[in-house]
Structures
1.
Amino acid sequence: MIFKAIFSGFGGQGVLMMGTSLAHGAMSNGYHVTFLPSYGAEIRGGTANCTVAIADEEIASPVASEPDYLVVMNAPSLFSFQNKVAAKGVIFLNSSIISERSSRSDVQAYAVPCGDIAQDLGNTRVANIIMMGAFIKKSGIVTPDIYLKSLESIMGGRKKGVAEINRKAFAAGFDYVKD
Amino acid sequence: MVKIVSKKPNSLKEKIFHYCPGCGHSIVHRLVAEVFDELDIRGIAIGVPPAGCAVLAYNYFDIDMVEAPHGRATAMAAAIKRVLPDRMVFSYQGDGDLAAIGIAESLHAANRGDNITVIFINNAVYGMTGGQMAPTTLLNQRTTTSPAGRHKTLDGYPLKVSEIFSQLQGTTYIERCAVSSPATVNKTKKAIKKAFQCQKDGLGFSLVEILSACPTNWKMNSIDSVQWIDDVLCKEYPPGVFKDETAARKLAEASS
Amino acid sequence: MNKTLMSGNHVIGEASIRAGCHFYAGYPITPQNELTEYMSEHMRSNEGRVFIQAESEISAINMIAGAAAAGARVMTSSSSPGMSLKQEGISSMAACELPGVIVNIMRGGPGLGNIRPAQGDYFQATRGGGHGDYRTIVLAPATCQELADLTMDAFDFADKYRTPVMILADGMMGQMMEPVIFKKPTPRQYPEKFMLRGAGTGKSKFIRALLLDPIDAEEHNWKLARKYEVITKNETLCEEYNVEDADMVIVAYGTSARIAKGAIKRLRDNGMKVGLFRPITLWPFPEQKLRALSAKIKNFFVFELSTGQMLDDVRLALQGYAHIDFHGRPGGAVPTPAELTNVIARVYNKND
């Protein structure tokens, strides 16, 4: 099996963190992974995106011709990438700031108001983790436990409170999307 | 009982200099070698000669040396010193090497305060390539690439290396000397010795600019050449100590 | 052993430090800045190691030449435009037989070009790049794991042959993260006699490449040429993938080889028997191995992120014994495996 996912949004929305934490989680689970970020002038104040590939065999190309998953945190990202998504693929969109919806009828789309949920939790910076909660639940690529452990190991020696709010945020996103 | 009044310094090889009659390089080579002997640093000295007339310096200095591409001697010397901080590392560079093609490397090594010594030969002309205009060529001075004389609006002005480098916070000791008479030669040796002492004491970047004759490319005889250093070159490039923070830095080190 | 998820730039940095890199100098340029940053953080926290942010790439390469002369394991890194500046120093290091590792994380060119992944520096890397008769060993990794391994090997090659060794990757390799395991580096074997450490009470040494007597210079050139022959004989590396039953073989290296692998999977799913020949050493080019393939395979397809540079080496290797098609995407354009699949499928069916 091989999955490819694109995460995209404004610089500062924690889009690259979404990708690295997923890649790290998949690595901990024993999968082959690649993580390919956008870089350089492209992300200075503009949009950032990354592609994560996860497979149970060697990954040939880190580029996604047809991503199975697309996670968009802002509207420009939706327009840029929605047509690349594979048929029967899945799109997650941050409905707090994206009023439009995907024009694709052959994909499954989840609108997650992760900005609003973050506000309710009292920390607007965790919108990306909320989205990851929804993503992990629907993709099932790794278990929540493995994902959260990876997230903590990436965040490293940062304050203890961060791990706690991240767990809360993840749970909120996880619970938001129904089974 | 025989009294030795003059001998070849141990830090020089048994070789006859290839430099032109009247050229300042031979004098400065000897002065540097004498300083090595006196400071007893021949065994820990590593030198980087330039591209230019002194490119063959390793034929004369009996110390470890490594060649640098044109202008890059201070970059190499700084790196060698960082790898081997207890060795005495110096570059030996002409005006084209240091002040034209290698000005960036020289200036930044100085600005970093790399604990190296730079022996800078300023003869206001490119010697090895046959007498072309140098960054230090005087206004109206005729060279093979300024046949009508260096023109200020077309060619720019003589570059004052000691003045510029003494402005850099990273430098410790900057002196300009000349090798035009027994008195100035003695003074030059003192400056060279002080520069290496500065390095030995770990006090930072030292540079000795030496006004030096190039009779061949100046198209003068040896006597006129040294006279021209005193009468003309020294007016544009006044000798003197431009910066000496050795005492202050020593004090700061002792109190820290 | 634990895998670590790291970007290619960081992998090179970590591998070099584990391999005992003692001196690094570099100048910021995208897309390799993370390597310079990694070195700044980790070299200075390692007792006695040196990191210098140089004032230019010219200075950086000459710094590592100086540090190599002093006996240190050395590395510098840059990206395409910066590599042009380094050529003077690389020629000098090759001439003076100074070991060192030089990393080029290629970007789009010519000129300032852009910062996207490209492979337009193949000629510069494999033909010497600077002036004079010399070669540099050029290693072209295609995965972060290979980056880790080859970075360590690069130091050993440099010491063994006393020559600069280049790691030629691109923006995608530098930026991409993959899990890696760092192997145990081999202890350094580099004789003291080649190091300048001060003459002590003994004979002084000098390291130089200025040989005014043409007979001396000619002998030095032939000495280097003989060394390059030995390297060519002993050190070629390549990977063959799905070539056993192939009707057509793609020749690609680094990032383009990865894209090609993705395309090959799709082509094979559609019944097209396509394989991959991936040179890992670009110089020496694995021409014997490639030529051997042409005994049974008559169609080759060169794919590069350039207008066709390695293509020359493939032609030289195949010597007209097989048909060669080419597809190139210069200037930082990177096709997806799906796009490449379409291009190859058209050629495959035409040749059929």
2.
Amino acid sequence: MSPVIEVRNLRKTYGSGDTAVHALRGLDLTVEKGEYIAIMGASGSGKSTLLNILGCLDVPTSGKYLLDGIDTGDFDEEQLSLLRNRKIGFVFQSFNLVPRTTALANVELPLVYAGIRRAQRRERALAALDLVGLSDRTHHRPNELSGGQQQRVAIARALVTSPAIVLADEPTGNLDTDSSREVLGILDRLHASGRTVVLITHEDEVAAHAMRTVRVVDGRVAGVLV
Amino acid sequence: MRVVEIAAFAVRGLTANKMRSGLTTLGILIGVASVILLIAVGNGASSSVQQSIAGLGTNILTISPQRAQPGSTVKPLTTADAAALVGPDSPDVKYASPVVSVQATAGFGGTSYPISQFIGTDPRYFDTTNSGVAQGNLFSDNDVQQARKVVVIGATVATQLFPGVDPVGKSMLVNNIPFTVVGVLAAKGSSGLQDADDMAVAPLTTTQNALTGYGSLTQIVVQARSADALPNASAQVTTILNGRHKVTGTPDYRILSQDQLLTARTATTETFTVLLASVAAISLLVGGIGITNIMLVTVTERIREIGIRKAVGAPRSSILGQFLIEATLLSLFGGALGVAAGVIGSRFTIAGIQPVLVPSSVLLAFAVSALIGLFFGSYPASRAAKLRPIEALRHE
């Protein structure tokens, strides 16, 4: 069986000539189905760039990225959006919920773009919100929710489409200790139920939740800690 | 199914900022309403001109002196010319009324009023121009012969100068010369550009004596025996006048039939309508630019939201659709309100003109307003759709 993520010699360069910044310099990474991986590294090491490319939010300058066995290299923007919708659940450090829109509508959003009917959409979004323990907050808007609750809505949104991978870019970076613990607990449960999770973090105790930790230094994988 | 969802996003986007959406809508509302209303006013003006000219009758010829051309002499039109037009040489001419007209200031009691047309003529003129009397009497041939200072006034003059008073029998000063009012004409209504009731009619002799002097007539108004006889009458008049004025080349007078007058006046009001419509079209354009402006602001303000939507898998087409629908809804809503405002506004008399709605202008203005949303919204919307997800998300 092919791995969920297979990255070969991935390079990403911003700008050109003397001012060019090499964020990734030939990175290799493989993530098997059901794995829970933490990516760590100093700021500027290229870990966020890596995650953005894994989430199809950005495209690499060169290299190969196979997602669920599909080569994303020759996909156009329209196919990439389909991939983001069906295969990837992305959790951001800053939550990124649509403002002035209820938690339920935020979670339903990916299902709308997937073309799923209203009744089924509602059912699945409510189930996802229930999974993150927010079934009593479905009609609250983001500005009526705490940071931890907003992040849990964001996680519900990421997993409502049953994606192949859940990517989380420092999901606890903006949260206090209690909220962090809740969010990590949810990710643990996702992993336990068989989901593939990749997260970026600065903190060792967050990384401790993962099966293995990948260290990124200067745009390359420096070491894997199991 | 998908379109409905995207339209729902668009509606939510618009209602999130009601003030801004409202003001943008107002721009289109004013544009559409003014297109409809101003075209209706122009149309109203031209139809009332047509009515008033048609009201004069279709068997009328108006002869007026031509301006002097270099190298030719102009003989004045005289009362004798008018008298010569009726006779055995011109079997198709029924009447020919000599007319002088002048602007005069009328006074009664403490008030004074400038009459735009003070006309001196003979009694046949009333018949020729379909002028009925509302109060009192018309003057007679005898009044003309005796040069009595009597006058028949139009409805506007009566209301302006004699409010609440029966003018018949009163003495009115015209350029400080006393005239006795013998009658009031029935109201004819405004012809859009001028008020047909803002006039007074006195005997020709009196008017020449007191006001204009004995120069050229302003017009000779000829009534043909019937509308069908008009071409013959015109030919007979030409022959007689050419003989009397010894015309060799271009005649020193001009004959206009009601048809020609109608054509000339219609052309004028059409120009007027086009002018009004283009002013209105400009305001519609300005409204459209307002939509572009607001949509650009909206897109810039919501770049992050666009990034989020793209990150969860919104295809380019749905982002494009959402913002296009927002822009089109703004302009359609504005257009619908504008149609309502225009239709309601056209029920009122504006500047003395009763507007007449042109149904095609309503349709056109509404269709244009919808297209404006599509056209002026497409640039901001395509900018939103082209954003790269990661760039949109990073935007602060």
3.
Amino acid sequence: MPITTEFDYHRPKDLKEALKLVWEGKGKARLLAGGTDLIVWLKEGVASPEAVVDLKGVPELRKLEFKDHVLTVGALTTFTELIESEVVRSRFPLLWESSRTVASLGVRNRATLMGNIASAVPSLDGAPALLLHEARVTAHGKAGRRTIPMRAWFTGPKKCALLEDEIASEIAIPLPEDKHAGCYVKLGRYRGEDLAQVGVGVMALEGARYRVAFCAVGPVPARAESIEALLKGKKLSDGLLKKAKSLVREEIRPITDIRASKEYREHMAEVMLERGLLAAVSRLEGRGPAYGTEQI
Amino acid sequence: MPRTTAKNGKKTAQPALPVGRHGLKLSLPPDADSAPKGAKAASREGLRSVGKSSQRVDGWEKVSGVAQFVDDIEFGPGLLYAALVESPHAHARILRVDTKAAEAVAGVVRVLTGKDFPFKFGLYMKDRYVFAQDRVRFVGEQVAAVVAWDAKTALRAARLVKVDYEELPPILDPMTALEDGADLIHPELGDYPHVPWFFPKAKTNVAHWRKTRKGDAAKGFKDADVVLEDTYTVPRYAHCAIEVHGAVGLYDNSGRLTVWTASQSPFTQRNLFAEALSPLGLTHKDVRVVTPYIGGGFGGKAGVSMEILGAAIAAKVQGHPVKVLWSRAQEFVNTYQRQGVVAKIKLGAKKDGTITALEHKLYWDAGAYVEYGANVVNAAGLSASGPYRVDNLHIDSVCVYTNLPPGGPYRGFGYSEFMFGLESHVTRMAQKLKMDPVEFRRKNAIKEGDILPYGAAMNPTGIQEAIDKVAAEIEWGRAVPSKDARKAVGKSLVLFWKSPAMPPNASSSAFLKFNEDASLNILVSGMELGQGLLTAMAQVASEILSVPVSKIRVETPDTDRNPYEWQTVGSHVTWGCGNAVLKAAVDAREQIFDLVERSLHLDRASLYLEDSAVKSRNKPGWSLPLKSFVIAGIQVEDHTYKGGPIMGRGVFMPEFSSAISDPETGQGGHPNVHYTTGAAGVVVSVDRETGKVRILKATLAVDVGRAINPGLVDQQVIGGLLQGFATALYEDMRFDAKGRIMNANFSDYKIPTALDIPDKTVPIIVEVPQPDGPFGARGVGEHTMIPAAPLIANAVEDAVGARIKSMPVTAEKIALALRKGA
């Protein structure tokens, strides 16, 4: 099926040129990295930009490095690159585990983590790990360079904090100083590729501290602060898990759509929170289950 | 049932032939079942090719990527592209179509509308139009087409065609369409031509009503100790063949119309194209349909759906090939969909487990046009007893027009749909009777000679053997504790049956041509859908003529070159086309023996074929290679030649079949040629909290009569079950309140991936020969999908106690049912 809309195609050589093109586009330019969203929108006529700025030739955006306890993921880094990275595999297993659940192999070979969070759909699998690691996005715009914390990144369904004149160049993902383990649990309709109907990310840190984030059950992916506060300093027990589960419905605002009902999403968010917490703690204590193992 | 066997070259017992009772005749050739003495590498029962898992004849081409599909064929720079203007409304009157703006676009060749083709077409009922005329009946229906020099221009210009509609209230479910005073979707229904076995009700939305009445249902229910009634619902499903539909038409300047299609039915297409376009002066001889390999069909590429556009549009742009290729979204909307059904079942049984009566009412959501789908309804109406002996039977199978996309054939042809309810219900009845559900099935399963719903007798069946083997494979009766406390393991065993649904005169034919090197070209129009037909046909000919499969070429059809085949549907081609090939091979063999007898004066009865040569039982050591004479002939004493090219011809038509019966009872005809039966079982693990189902083991035993190629049968079992499990667990077409499909994509219409295959699938082949099948074979293609849905529903209940009565049996339904119950 051909793309029927007409647009100018640009392939800038560096970030400066890319930014100039974005500014000239005055909001009518779209950025292309992996293209797994944009090309589909172009084909379906959902997007009809006047210009497409292909970032694949911008060297500043091509980065994947671990330095001073921070993983820097350039905007052109694909999910496959993350999954195949030894550093990600060994030091950021939560990011590794959630990246493996994104779409299918073919899509992961092209799709970027930055594109994933820039599309800002509520179901994005990339969000919980970034929220739990308290990652930061670097953006470049007319006003210069700024850093946006993940907590402030998602501003609404399909909306993020990136301004029209900005290009997001990289994501900085800090490694917690304390010993920790994580778990990402995703609900799909089958075992093949699917958009999350519920996503739950959990990080358990030494000293009985917990971080919890949900996606696909509200307008934006978000941390569940009341649950984190409840769990803080406590060892997991049946009673505590029950209490944590009882807070889930206050933290999430799921909808009924073609993929799942509100009722099932609420039910599963509770089940998945419990399983995610148990798995994360078990991993922290060195008892497995191995990362990548299905929890539901 | 004794088998046809041969040991040491001697014929042993022939199958007990039910000639007369069934009207069937043995079509095994005189020595097809007896291997000559000392036959090298003779396989089981003396067969050398049949019964072996030969490598696919199309395997190399497909694996290496050289196999050509419609969209791969090069048509040169003169190729035009057509884009469709489609209805945004489920039901509306067309007030005006303005094509001016589209026609003005540079690169546009022609814009066509309903006015250009004011004629109907259809397979069993002529209720469809090439383009909508005065009204549209589903979202996505073709209203106009723009033909341009490139696809982009065609798509852009199509958006400029202005159509004014007057919206009408859509009817989106069959129960509403059946209400008194419901708006009529086809006010002219009473005038539509249709086959004589359809019974449309003019001035209603009922396109066909198949009634089957046997015995006395009221008395049967009175005699029952337990009566169980319930309703089951099945949504619509999409075939999702990996290759979308496509057609390229060329009406050349000599007046010849050639259409290249992705199709299961080239000859049916030729017939319908010629009929529909006859007002333009076309006759059958002028129309040629070429079907290269297709990337899956599953019934969706049967008959004629979008391909009419390729033919019709081509007729208006003479001299240029024109391509119509569906997008994935169009593939979902405007081909055929599996029809939804509401099934109301009432079953009566005695305490000892004897079924006394069954009332089965099926209300089909057949969609906007039923030219093919009404026959699905008919097939279900003839067989909704399932594979059981039911003396008192009352079936109503009602084909109802709705403003949803046209329904039609999909692997199982109505049986997958009604067996969900029936086999769910049978298990529940066994529970009510406090009887083992497998024992209950064993007791009531149909046997050879039992009277079928329409009055004829049942063909030989290995269903009891299938039940025993499946029960053993899943260790029926042995409870399996779950290793994970959150999960429970459940099992189920269900039965299935299906007959080909075809007109009584549906026929197959074959040509078989020898080449100089004694290789063979076989021409058939049975279609290779991935099921392995070409390979099976080569094996049948190989068996008779002793030519190895590797020296036989069988290709996909071209109606100019290949002889007639009705359609490749209904799991009938191994049987029907196989019989034609067998006859063609026997015809060639008899020509060979005739020639050898008259030119070399050998005793004809002593002749046999082995290793691509003629041999004689009277002259050990003598051998005449086929390649020495099958083209050149045999030179005799006076130096002249006898013979000439050996060409076989075979035609098969089931001459015992008839579709005419009493419309009020369905009694009196013989509409179905035979039933293939079997049993299937699963072991599943169900998560009590999430509702997720994992299939630990699936097994299916099918009585194929004779497996021409056991490896291909195994693959049918593995693939068919997987396709069925997907419909049972997560596939589901959804429409909004305006009749627009909400999931015409793979983001939200889920078909299984490699990750979703059961942990283990065990195919089991049962062989109780079909007396009129080639080497005893009967069909198997669709049957492997049919039991999947009730298998899941019953096993889930066995595991966790939740009974789901609407397909699909999703994790969500299970989890919420358990949460509610907890």
4.
Amino acid sequence: MLTEQELLMKINSREKMLVNLKDKSDTEIQGLTKELQKDYQQAIFLEAKAETHEERRKYRQIRNRIIDQQNLISKYQQLRYRSLIKRSAPKPPVLKNTIAAFLVGGTITSLGQILLNFYIWQGLTFKEASTATSITVVFLGALLTGLGVYDEIGKVGGAGSMVPISGFANSIVSPALEFKREGYVYGVGAKIFTIAGPVILYGTLTSVIIGLITYITM
Amino acid sequence: MQTKRLGKQTLNFHIPVAISSFASIVGPMEGKGPLGKGFDYVLENDLDGEKSWEKAEQKMMQHSLEIALAKRNYHLEDLDFFLAGDLLNQIICANFTARALGIPFLGLYGACSTLVEGLIIGSMIIDGGFAQRVGVAASSHHETAERQLRYPTEQGIQRTMTAQWTVTGSGAFILEEPSSFSEIVITQGIVGRVIDMGVANAMDMGSAMAPAAADTIVRYFQDTGRKPEDIDLIVTGDLGNIGRILCEELVLQKGFDISAKFTDCGVLIYDPSQDVHAGGSGCGCSASVLAAYFLPQLLEGKLNNILFVATGALLSPTSTQQGETIPCIAHGVLIQRINKEG
């Protein structure tokens, strides 16, 4: 059993050893880890036995210092392993993905442009036509989600199918489908906005802020 | 060639397995309860200086094991295996505790029966000669359990009278081969069956679990031929006020009167004035009460043996929402005091 003073001495003397972990062998690091575990156990034992609030806080501070030292070692080990991961991880095909996203996103938005032109030609004003276009694209996105097609498009298109408004429809319809089995209240009702929720919340918040800025500056 | 089993479900250990050390940590509310003095460490608040409740629960489990080791001057390397579980998804508290400890680890899930599941498996490992010393721990935390299984903690809902209060607590136990120093031992274990009597109300776990507890208790008497008179106390994990009465009645229907020697950790851990409705629940309930209340009584000789039965409700929020009923389980261990004079 170590006393508080002995514990502190051990921690202080270890401080220097932890600076240059690179120069330490694996066995030395293992030894340090074991020593830290022993000290930690001692510290929590003393903390539990402490009778006053102050005493407890004192041991907690000691324990926190041990945790800091443990973190130093684990960070070092993780860093070493991370460089190994980097060497062996497959690279995502960035160029291929970018081209696919461009083509899929381009197709969806071109379709939107065709719809917009069609509605204007049919006699709607530009504002009305753009609303009608959004409604149509959202409907198509939802329909394709229901038919199980949109996830296939998303697999190829990535952000290209996620960013347009049809992707937003997909993010609402897909949880609704998924959680139907949990009922219409706790299932669909509770989970329908799990993915779209942040977009709706922060979209609303952003428009409020922009509205305020516009009001002040105009 | 099986000689270590009695009847259908009871395990009879050849060598009694010693509980050489134990420790418990609880939250502030449990600390203010009737058993407050027995716990090794009462947290000052539910977060205990951590960034999240989950982290606080993980530390609580780790610390209870470390305190149990320190009491006997053991170190982590003295443990051959660590068995643990908790209530959180993917038993993260147990997994992350095992990460910190670095001991060979088996994660367990038996809902609130996890501790006894661990004690049984730990005893089997030692009786089987696979290890000299095994650590067993279980924990639960009121806030982590509520937010995962029920509602956000600040949600203004009225709890039903049958609802139980998840205990913030953890208990850890060191099992080892018996020596001349051993004072309390596990001699028998009983592995429960999953019983579902059709209760679907997740706010009434006591009623759901009572049939499982009764089944295990009755099965123990049938397997061993023992009678309630042979046992000083029968303790269930977290049936609460309602489940306890139901269980007693169900056991009586099978011809065993346990009313004079039957209690429940969920009933004992809180005072009725603490507004917990039907009593405590959670892995930490049975674990902390066993360590803080019953084992010390065995050590002092106030009790000679107890049949400790922990019950678990094996549901998930998803199964409840899909309209499933609650399957329940109960495991038991017979813990005995070694009579030094005899």
